[in-house]
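Q&A log
Question type: sequence-to-structure
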Amino acid sequence: MKRTLILLLLFSLILSGCASAAPTFESGAAPAPAAPMERPAAADKAFEAAGVSSDQAQDLRKVIYSADMTLIVTDTEAVADQITQMANDLGGYVANLNAFRSDNLMYYSITLRVPAEQFDNARAALRNMALRVDNDSIGSDDVTDQYYDIEARLRALRATETELISLLRETRERGGKVEDIMSIYRELTQIQSQIESQQGQLNRLDKLVSLSTINITLRPDELAKPIATDEWRPLQTLRDSARDLVNVLQGLIDLLIRLLVVVLPTLIFLAIPVLLILLALRWLTRRLRGKSGGGKPSGDKPAGGSA
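Response status: OK
Response body:
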């Protein structure tokens, strides 16, 4: 009973001091890691006014925790399996896993969701798996004000929904006008839509608060890199070379076909008018020479004489 009275007083204070709507979060996604935030003043004042002790206030506070860790390990594949098993043992799960190979070594990027009460235990277990920890950062986002603001709005909306349902029933029983009934029904539908939206935001916040996020990067130790690798494959090189030879020959044949089909007819087409012009010039030159040779007087006298 005392807890209910405390919560009711807390809701009334927060509702009167918060006019803005609560922000939304994507389902299953945690906010980016951030530095620890200051405790919201509205929540602190509400806790103090309700006479809540510091321990009780801490239990009522809603904080989203996240961490980023970079671990250097000997065998990344084996450690990735251990991390998956650890998450299951702690009551969490692997939200995302991405693996890629570079220089014949496997690298992993893993995102864990673990219960908030197991957050520190999970981080300690991860540190024990590593040869070296290159990065270990923690972020928190205090959403206490947002959470109780949404909860207070939800209570008010449900109270309005109850009143509208009662008013709709009374209007129907009294044989009210159709316009009045439809007006009440539209208002009721809008209220129910807002209830669903606020409840969805509250559920997402509950999930983010109850499950902390740990982003892990697994990198292999340089000493784990093998001296000799099995990347040299002479048969594959021979096959690739034969494929390159075939591609070169295909390219040469394609070039020859283009020369025969495109270039040669084009040259013939261009050569015909040039040849005709040359023939015309040659004929004109001969004609001019013939005319100049026939009009020139001859220097020889005709043969013959008197007796």
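Response note: The helical segments are 2-17, 41-49, 54-60, 76-89, 119-129, 144-173, 178-210, 234-294.
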